[in-house]
User: Fold this.
Amino acid sequence: MSRDRDSRRLPVIVTFVVGLMLTVMPLPETVEAFRPDWLALVVIFWAMQLPRTWSVGTAWFIGIILDVSYGTLLGQHALALCVVAFATVRSHLLMRVFPLSQLSATIFALLALYQFILFWVNGVAGVSAPAVTYWAPVITGTLIWPFLYMFLSGVRYRSRSGA
Amino acid sequence: MVASRGNNSNPARIPALGLRVLALILISILLMYLDHRRNHLDGIRRGIGAAVYPVQVVVDAPVRMWKWLRQSTTSRNELELELGRLRAERLLTNARLQRLTALEAENARLRALLDARTTVRDEVRVAEIMAVDANPYEHNLIIDIGSTDGVYDGQAIVDANGVVGQVIRTGIMTAQAVLISDADHALPVEVNRNGLRTIAVGTGEIDRLDLPFLPNNADIRAGDLLVTSGLGGAFPSGYPVAVVNSVTRIPQEPFADVTATPSAALDQVREVMLIWSAPPASEETDE
Assistant:
């Protein structure tokens, strides 16, 4: 049983690592502001699909890694991701049966919550206020969600049949 | 799948989820509180930073590979052209350097006469910029040497044309630096022509610095070269920073509106130089 579980964990960890790569990958200046929050999306997906294994603890840990690679306040992204994961786990049963339109709206709300917490912490800590494009990742993230969802579902079911 | 695991008779119930999330939120807030005063958590940051390092290397790899591939497939013709260009450039630089050596000696003599502290020549080392984006809301970059090579927080970074920025966080194998164009960065400069001192503030635009503290009657004009004044203690003096490109004087405003263009190609550099200024000045950074 334990071997079975480990073989299921690896693909998920790989998706997190790939998410981190996409997060730090260099992009041209003009599109950089529109980079979706890959890791937030991946965290939401796994918290929604396998909430017992991947929930707030994982999200928090990934947030800490994000904080280190961004050089932001240690705990800022951790806090935001952890709250988002909590909201996802609380509503994961609903989210699974939502049609795409409703699910997209939910994802939009979750990403907005994520950015808002980051924004709020920045405000409290006195980090200078970013531009309007600050909210762009919420929109690009929502737009990219259906594709990511299909891809990650593929990963999930393939890894299950392989296990 | 969840149902097949058998232990999910009521999958909505995740044990102690609320408690866990509350604990994590409290830990986050505590961490942020400690981190806000910097330094407290540098050890943890460095530890996790080392774990992130492989990811950064992997992301950087294609760019490095591409560069290597291009280098190894350039035609002989191009190489010869490049060699010729470099030779000419070296000749020119060397000619200038001859004068510089003489001037440096003269300067040291004069300073000795005046009983002033002799400026010691700075120690430099070349570092390569990793093709890794750190924080999208800050102008910063990551270089491929860290504390094991003696890099320290607040260290000045220049390229062939001028000041690039300064190190803000030193990791073990990498270091993160803020560019002078970052909106939170300010740099003490002086006008090379007349020694007028002021502060160059980043704007968040890669090709523009502002000089907000110059009175309307200040002797400054477009084309003036700004060099580091060395007053902040972080940057050694005398490195070119920017060229003034516009001075707008509005009579009813107390300060002139002066903008400058950084001398260093901030968004194109691939190799930079780190400076170890000989007498380690005060620890403070002028961020």
About this structure: The helical segments of chain A are 2-24, 29-32, 38-49, 56-70, 76-90, 92-97, 100-125, 136-162. The radius of gyration of chain A is 16 Å.
